[in-house]
Amino acid sequence: MSAHGQDEPVVRPEQVNISDSSMWKKVPMIAAVIGILALAGAFGLKGEHDEGFYFSYLTSTMFWLALSLGGLFFVLVQHAARAGWSIVVRRIAENMALTLPMMGLLILPAVFLGAHDLFHWTHAEAVATDPMLSWKEPYLNETSFRIRAVVYVVVWSIFGLFYWRTSTSQDDATGKSILDKAHKMRWAAPLGIAVFALSLTFSAFDWLMSLDPHWFSTIFGAYYFAGAVVSTHAFIALIVILLHRSGYLRGVVTKEHFHDLGKMMFGFTVFWAYMGFSQYMLIWYATIPEETEWFSYRGAGDYLTLSIVLVFARFVFPFLGLISRHIKRNPKTLAFWAVWILAAEFIDMFWLIDPVDAHNAGNHHPTIEFGLVDILCFVGIGGMWLSVMTWGLTRKALVPVNDPRLAESVHFENF
Question: Smallest Cα–Cα separation from 90: which of 25, 182, 22?
Answer without folding.
Answer: 182
